[in-house]
Amino acid sequence: MIHFYRILSESPNIRKISLMFEETDLPHEIKTVDVHADGGLDPEFGQVNPSGMVPAIVDLDTGVRLFESGAILFYLAEKTGKLLPKETKARSEVMKWLIFEAANICPNLIEIHHYLLNDEGDTPNAIFERYKNNLVQYCSVLDQQLQHREFIAGDYSIADIAIYPWTVTLEDLAEISLDDYPHLNRWAKMLDQQISSRANDSVLA
Ligand SMILES: N[C@@H](CCC(=O)N[C@@H](CS)C(=O)NCC(=O)O)C(=O)O
Q1: Which CATH number belongs to the domain containing residue 38 in this structure?
Q2: Structural domain total, the chain
Q3: Nearest CA owner, ligand 1 atom 16
Q4: Domain at 134, CATH number
Q5: Are strands 2-6 and 28-32 parallel, antiparallel or unpaired?
Q6: Of 101, 57, 112, whose CA–CA distance to 79 is shortest?
């Protein structure tokens, strides 16, 4: 059994881990955390992630405690033997894109989210443009990567799972339209379909 610490809302970082559980069918129990609780961090969760960020997991079978969504995806892929190739070259490609997301896409969108949430629209344009320009560049890189590939790196992998949940946020928060990136758009729509048809199948099963 794995304890999955999360906030109630399905933010992109949380969505990655929910998706991974859906893909791997691993038994897990959700532990909802209030990361901004007035009385401070819940002591049980504080042991799991002293920085108070979600997602985080504790694998009761192995004692492994993890935070950072990329590390969690990697661990769950290793545990199940799914969504991460064994062969070094293919595996390194997946890891490259997993870290690309963690180092670039996530931080820039989180900054934009922070300013939109806290500044009530008073974010200086130059700041918004800086993060947006970074994201525009990452979208171009992804669009190029997907030009001749069905998925980000070889077969469907944890790299797709890490990047996909941001596609909606790119449009909503950074005002970046996926229509300007035809290959990225095609990939996002394909995953929308793949994921929603699997959800429908499990409802019907
Ligand atoms: N790099 C982290 C980012 C996690 C993150 O930003 N989590 C947000 C929720 S989606 C959070 O816990 N925010 C609480 C806070 O910033 O205090 C990851 O990939 O897991």
Answers
A1: 3.40.30.10
A2: 2
A3: 53
A4: 1.20.1050.10
A5: parallel
A6: 57
**49 and 96 in a common domain:** no
* Global pTM value: 0.94
pLDDT in tens, 129-163: 999 999 999 999 999 999 999 999 999 999 999 99
Cβ of 18 less than 6 Å from ligand 1: no
Our answer on whether the CB atom of 99 is closer than 6 Å to any ligand 1 atom is no
41-94 confidence digits (pLDDT tens): 889 999 999 999 999 999 999 999 999 999 999 999 999 999 999 999 999 999
- Domain extent, residue 60, equals 2-80
- Could you tell me if 7 and 62 lie in one domain? yes
> 127 and 157: one domain?
yes
Nearest CA to ligand 1 atom 14: 53
